[in-house]
Amino acid sequence: MKINAIHYRTYGKLNDYTLTLDEGINTIYGGNEAGKTTIFNSIRSLLYGFSPANRERHPYVNWTREEIDFEGSITVDGTPFRVMRQLKSSPKLTILDEVNGTVENKRNDSLPWVADITDSLYESIYHLTAEVLIDLETSSWERIQERLIFNYGMDYLNKSSDVVQAMTQELNGIWRPDRRGTPKLAQIEQRLRELTRTRIEGEQQYDNLKGLFENVEVLAQQIQRIDQQRKWCIATAQELNKLLPVKQKHEKIEMLKREQQHLTLYEKIPEDYLVKYHQLKERLQEITAEREVLGNECETLEREKTVFNAEEVQILANAAALEKASDTLQHYELAEQQLHELSAALSMKTEQLERELGNLFEAPYQEAYETVKQMNPVALKTALYRYFDMKQKDEQIRAAAWSLALGKKRRYGILMVASLVGIAIGWRFPDFRALAWLSMAAFGIAIGGMLQRQRKNQPTDDELTTVAANIEAMFMPLKLPDYFWTDTSLIFVGRIEQAAGLIFESDKLSARIEAEKEKRAALETVMRRALTGGSGNDMPVILTLQMTLQKLKALSKAQYENERLQDKLLTLKTRCHEFDDKIAALNEQLSEIELKFLNLGMGNLDEGIAIFERDQSIGKRISIFEEELLSDIALYDSFKHYENPELINERYIEELEELREELEETRQKAVSEKSASEAEIEAIKAAVKFDELDSEHQMLTAEREALTARRDQLMIMMEVLKYADDKFRRENQPDILNRVSQLMAEMTLGKYQKVLISESFDLQFLVDDEVMPISKAFSKGTLNQLFLAFRLAVIEMINRDKPPLPIVLDEAFVNWDDRRLAATYKVLEDFATRHQLFILTCHEPKHPYHLVRLPEETSS
After folding, report:
1. 3-state class of 499 per DSSP?
2. Which of 317, 490, 591, 766 has its CB 3.0 to 4.6 Å from that of 753, i.e. a possible disulfide?
């Protein structure tokens, strides 16, 4: 079995804390009061349940939550399980198989895998604490030998010799085979014989009691019958007293129902019909009065409406066109104003253009106007740019050619001079004759270069003439001023562009004036049509339209007032129709209700209403009685299902009371006679006391049987214990001592080679090939190591065919030095392959393995 983890929801000071464990050695490290002892107790509780199983007495119940709730994750033979334990009002255990999903619920039982090892055995053997080791240090050597040799660390058991001795003492107190002394069984046998003799003597006196017993039995039966009759009388009278008011109310209801007339017709009329009838009549009168008021209002509104003549009707019919004409009138006035403004602007542009063309050309205005209008200023400017550019290029080319010619002549002149110098040097000095030939060649090249003609690249005069002719053609028949051909700043062309712009603006203004005139004419046509309906009229349009619009305004106001009155009139008529519908509906409802009352009164409405009121009053009284009956529905059901309702009357109740009194007198007589017979019987019994004799005889008989069973059990147990103890010592003690020797040698690094027991059962040890008693061989640390070796050997013996349970060592290595501690951990590593080990310590662990550090504060 391996514990994988424990989750504490609440266990002592451990709240909402999870302890994760390894399958081998686990070192749990924490300071004082960190929860180490709590963890061991939780492991024991996980395996064996809570002890004590009462949350008021359990020391680890959380004071705040007043409960214990934790769970463990374990593995048994490779199968994972979850074990959940709770201690609230009662202990609870839940085991979940995480592979199969099965759930087993129990109370405070041990886990099924630890049933072969008791909780006391587990706590004594598998749990080694510092307190146990300290107790060894303060014990005598004889006490240490006794704990080690005879019990092998199992201090929860007594020695077999002590047990046999105690059993022998107990057996001698119960029974002795030699018949000596006065054991308990002999005393009991003697007392039983005395009781038997006393009873035989007393039974002879009991023959006289048989007649008395029979008389008492008869009287008791008679009293029982009387009691039953009395109970029946009382119960029946009580029931009838309860049912009598119910019967009286029921009879009253039946009588009232007989007083109702025409019940069949009345029941067909709902209870609220009479109230509804009066309400409908009142409502009909109110609505009729309101309808008359609305009719008078409608007549008043009809009289307030205005009547129009034919001309006013025509104006109102043409209101949309007149409204449109009103907008048109505004547009007409704006068009007139716009036309005056455009004419003035055109006049100013024309005067400016005449001045500008007169300054540019000495020609008539119209001729200059037409020429400039047809001219393209952009083309003119492009042609002038080309003309001036060609002139500039011609001048630049001429200057560049002249400069190039001068440079070439200068270079060729220098070459000629150098050639002549070279020729002179070559002819003067024979060694430089080759230089003379080269110089002659260079001189020839210089002569040829000087005589070469410059190529002509400038444009011809014909091209300039052609461009100028094209420009003059643009101004035909006008004559250009002389400064035009030298005006490189293009001032003249700019003035031409201004003049062209003025001509464009003048033409644009003229077009706008014509458009405004057409627009004004169209607006005038629209106004005439609005006034005359399309026919011609010689009156001034604007004056006629203004007068018509004033009439339309007054007529529109009157028409609006008529429409308002008409809407109000329609609303009133609608309400009148609604009132008419309501009056018709009310009359229909009244007719339906009156028909019901007419049927009830056999054709007389008032009589029908009177019958309905009388029957309704009786019905209310009946309802009151029925509500009183239904207030106790169980009592009413009892009355309806009573077998003999005719017996529910006061006379029969009085008869039952008389019968009860007679039975009471008869019972008192029987009780008195029975008491006298019982007193006589008790007087006879007091002399003999058979009950005491029988009670003591039964008690002694039971005690004799229990002592006999205990005697037989002790005799068998003594024989079995002697046999088992002898067999155990012969078969197991050598194996355990050999295993203890092996473990001790490993933990002490070979110093203590073997553990021995002398013939007188004294503990001895082989140290350096010398046999020494325990009192000379051991220090405190070595004694602790020997005790651990015995514990481990006993655990191996116990676990030969049982599940390997976890081993807990709580501060067990306080007296170990480093070398022996390391050797001990090697032994524990071997045990960790079969058992899960928990080492609890408050010291920094030197061999941590799987280390769990407890937090300083584990409580929430």
Report:
1. helix
2. 766
* 8 strand-pairing partners: 17, 70
CB 789 within 8 A of CB 748: no
User: Looking at the domain assignment, is residue 736 inside a domain?
Assistant: no
Long-range contact set of residues 109-116: C-beta below 8 Å, sequence gap at least 24: 109/49, 110/47, 110/48, 110/49, 111/46, 111/47, 111/48, 111/83, 113/1, 113/76, 113/803, 114/1, 114/47, 114/48, 114/803, 114/805, 116/802, 116/803
DSSP 854: P
**Token pair of 363, please?**
């020609």
Residue 92: strand, helix, or coil: strand
* Residue whose tokens read 């464990």: 21
Q: How confident is the model at residue 150 (pLDDT cuts 50, 70, 90)?
A: very low
**Is 424 in the same domain as 517?**
yes
**How confident is the model over 235-247, as a mean pLDDT?**
81
Beta pairing class for 91-97 and 103-106:
antiparallel
- Judge contact between 581 and 587, C-beta under 8 A: no
Of 54 and 211, more confident: 54
Determine the Cα angle at 686 with ends 681 and 692, to 5°.
115
> Under DSSP, is residue 19 helix (H, G, I), strand (E, B) or coil?
strand
- In Å, the largest CA–CA distance within the chain is 206
Domain boundary at 532, 554, 577, which?
Answer: 532
- Condensed to tens digits (0 to 9), the pLDDT of residues 465-497 reads 887 777 777 777 777 777 777 777 777 777 778
Sheet strands side by side (includes 2-11): 14-20, 2-11, 68-76, 79-87, 91-97, 103-106
Same domain, 527 and 637: no
Above 60 in pLDDT, residue 548?
yes
End-to-end Cα spacing for the chain: 31
325 in Cβ contact with 542 (< 8 Å)? no
* Cβ burial 808-841 (10 Å sphere, 16+ → b, else e): bbbbbbebbeeebbebbbebbeebbeebbbbbbb
> 696 and 198 in contact (C-beta within 8 Å)?
no
CA–CA separation, 754 and 771 (whole Å): 9
Domain C-terminal end among 532, 552, 574:
532
Q: What is the pLDDT of residues 103-138, one digit of tens each?
A: 999 988 899 888 778 888 888 888 888 777 776 656
The answer to whether the beta carbons of residues 419 and 439 sit under 8 Å apart is yes
Q: Is 844 exposed, middle or buried (0-12, 13-18, 19+ CB in 10 A)?
A: exposed
Q: What is the enclosing helix (H) or strand (E) of 28?
A: strand 25-29
How many domains are there within the chain?
A: 2
Dihedrals φ, ψ of 73, to 5°? -105, 115
Nearest of 328, 679, 355, 344 to residue 520 by alpha carbon: 328
CB 105 within 8 A of CB 92: yes
Region 574-579: what's the mean pLDDT?
87
> pTM for the full model?
0.38
Q: In what order do the strands lie in the sheet with 752-757?
A: 752-757, 763-767, 770-773
One domain, residues 373 and 230: no
Distance CA 411, CA 406 (A): 9
Tokens 């000087």 — which residue?
Answer: 450
DSSP for residue 127: E
Q: Are residues 512 and 433 in the same domain?
A: yes
330 lies in some domain: yes
| Domain membership of residue 244 as a residue range | 185-261+633-650+659-690
Quick check: 820 and 25 in contact, CB under 8 A? no
Of the given ranges (87-101, 455-469, 702-716, 834-848), which has the lowest mean pLDDT? 455-469
DSSP line for 439-498: HHHHHHHHHHHHHPPPPP-SPPHHHHHHHHHHHHHHTTTS---GGGGG-TT-HHHHHHHH
Same domain flag for 256 and 335:
no
